[in-house]
């Protein structure tokens, strides 16, 4: 019991530290980001509906749309790549039980662009690996 309390306390402390620099985003933020990225990339309605459901099918607009969305949500920058602490904070602040899934996805999928891909390809490569493991978490937080 006390070990669990300590872990919960430490998790809350870490989330608060990260949150001091990173602003947790909510449903309204996600909707605004989706709308802005849709405008930027002129995404067709049928593809956009899938994006809103956090499904990102192969399409000529998908990679850069994903990069745009992740950037607007504060989870990725072209300079630094993925902000792993922000991803953990964003997707575990409501439910500590998500931590294992979020971390597992990061361990499995994160890279530092050793392939030297363009930022759209890099963001999409990592996110399309991480998302299937955590789609339920993303939908719960953003939908």
UniProtKB/TrEMBL annotation:
The keyword Coiled coil does not apply. SUPFAM superfamilies: Insect pheromone/odorant-binding proteins (SSF47565). It comes from the Eukaryota. It is found in: Secreted. Keywords: Secreted, Signal. Residues 1-20 form the signal peptide. GO terms for molecular function: odorant binding. GO terms for biological process: sensory perception of smell. CDD domains: PBP_GOBP. The keyword Signal applies. PANTHER family: GEO07291P1-RELATED (PTHR11857:SF43), ODORANT BINDING PROTEIN-RELATED (PTHR11857). Belongs to the PBP/GOBP family. This is Odorant-binding protein 83g. It comes from Drosophila rubida.
